[in-house]
Amino acid sequence: MIDESGSALPAHGVPAEQVLAEVRRLREADRPTHGGRLFAYVYDAAVAGLDELAAAAYAESAHVNGLDPTAFPSLLAMENALVGAAARVLGGGPGTSAPEVVGSVTSGGTESLILAVKAARDARPEITAPRIVVPASAHAAFAKAAHYLRVALDPVPVDPTTLRPAVADVAAAITPETVLVVCSAPSYAHGVVDPVAEIAQVAAAAGVRCHVDACFGGWTLPYLRRLGVPVPAFDFAVPGVTSISVDLHKYAYAPKGVSVLLHRDPALRAPQYFAYADWPGYTMVNPVISSTRSGGPIAAAYATLRHLGDDGYLELTRRTWDAVRVLADAVRDVEGLRLVAEPESSVVCLTSTDPELDLFVLVDELTARGWHTQPQLAYAGLPRSVHLTVTAAVAPRAAEFGSVLADAAAAARAAGPVTLPPELLALAGSLTPEALTPELVAGLADGLGLAGKAGPPERMAVVNTLLDAAPVALRERLLVEFVGLLQRPTY
Questions:
Q1: Domain definitions of the chain by residue range
Q2: 3-class state of residue 247 by DSSP
Q3: d(Cα 45, Cα 54) in Å, to the nearest integer?
């Protein structure tokens, strides 16, 4: 697939044009990153020339190393400008109630959240068994942070109707070992904003930091408010909010990966840093997890923000909100489907009320028609659902989606729901992760069409149905094993 030998390291070098042609051929199997029919993973502004500008800016700084800002002051200047812009959008900076907001540019939302947890943990060295309180709907990156940093995770259930945690439950979960309380603006799965003001108040009363994960919505909610959409308070205007994360490679439409982690003041940020001088090499000080960092993403983000400007983002948000409303109406018009929550951000989330309309089959039918959505498994009383991340690029195509959704739903209903063999269902309900042997994984993979594949199967409904039937711990192990089957070296 890469060359005759199947190796990325041929015996003799390959001409540049041939290499680029190989990359383009490989890209043909990917989901489309542009065109408004991919509702996850990528963010397309559909602004002419923006990609070319960002790529040119990226190239200008690709070889600049963020390890040492004294060697490359251009990168320091651009990073400070991005942090300042994010602070202003999120209610901080001069003339606000949070005039001393500082921050760092990271490689993405996960790194921002890990660092928010690290800063909170390291600020309380007297606590030997630190814990963080998170809604069950908080992004999985908090669980990753807890795992990496050896911090205990205390999830608070969300109401099955409002999809938000009860403030009283959050307050009850706070213990003397709690170093951080988390809320989402909005939650990724369903697109609803947690009661940030109330949660921040109970966190402050307990003397605990409160982080708002606005990685997904931090660049749209302020503009939605300016457009007249009722957006609850969630940013630095809320007393008790100590840090906020926002991804610029989402609705700021910068190339991946650029996120910003903001702290209300420099003292709150200080524990985020890692400094080390107890060795004979260069003195190390890092504000983020990486040491060496390419300046490319930062320069591309700087160019993107400068080019689009505040008025450009307001217009892009207006287009996005228009598309959200059109898509929501399309869901309402299909019998057997309903919205999981009324849209209040850039997410449309739907579920099925008809046992004969299998959502996982619906996802496959939409994919077959060129529309790519994100299935979400059932969890703790919440139904399986389909997530649509809506961007400005969707707006010109939104009107098409209604007829496509109706057609795909009819096809899914005609095909009928996925039915797993009774013995497989019994196995999924009783098997422990520890009992999942390589032989058993191989048998499951063969039965699901994953064995010997160079890539994922075209239809995923059977795989998703098996995962949906499994308890959470087994789901996690199955996911690891299945993805491990796909990620094998080409020699």
A1: 60-304, 422-486
A2: strand
A3: 12
List C-alpha distances in Å: 197 to 204, 211, 397, 406. Answer: 11, 11, 36, 40
Predicted confidence (pLDDT) per residue in 90-99, tens digit = 999 999 999 9
The SS3 call for residue 73 is helix
Instruction: Output DSSP code: residue 123.
Output: T
Q: What is the pTM of this model?
A: 0.95
Alpha helices per DSSP H over 123-265: 141-149, 167-173, 196-205, 221-226
Respond yes or no on whether the N-terminal peptide bond of residue 186 is cis (omega within 30° of 0): yes
Per the structure block, which two tokens stand in for 61? Answer: 């700084």
Q: How far is CA 396 from CA 42, 333, 399, in A?
A: 17, 19, 7
374-398 per-residue burial string, b: 16 or more CB within 10 A, e: under 16: bbbbebeebebbbbbbbbbbbbebb
Q: Taken in order 105, 107, 109, 112, is the CA torsion positive or negative? A: negative
Question: Which backbone phi and psi does 54 adopt, to 5 degrees?
Answer: -65, -40
Residues 6+ apart with CB under 8 A from 395: 36, 46, 319, 320, 322, 323
- Helices assigned H by DSSP within 4-72: 16-27, 50-61
CA-nearest of 292, 311, 308, 289 to 300 is 308
On whether the 60-304 domain is CATH 3.40.640.10, my answer is yes
DSSP for 354-416 reads -TTS-HHHHHHHHHHTT-B-EEE--BTTBPPEEEEE--GGGGGGHHHHHHHHHHHHHHHHHH-
User: Residues 147, 117: contact at Cβ < 8 Å?
Assistant: no
Helix (H, G, I), strand (E, B), or coil: what is residue 421? coil
Q: Nearest 10 degrees: CA dihedral of 404, 406, 407, 410? A: 150
Half-sphere exposure of 400 (CA within 13 A, CB side): 11
Q: Estimate to the nearest angstrom the gap between the alpha carbon of 234 and the chain centroid.
A: 18
Q: Which residue has the tokens 């797993």?
A: 420
Beta 259-263 vs 102-106: how paired, if at all?
Answer: antiparallel
- 188-237 pLDDT, tens digit per residue, is 999 999 999 999 999 999 999 999 999 999 999 999 999 999 999 999 99
Cα separation, 26 vs 5, whole angstroms = 16
**What digits encode the pLDDT tens for the residues 97-127?**
999 999 999 999 999 999 999 999 999 999 9
Residues 156 and 131: beta-carbon distance below 8 Å: no
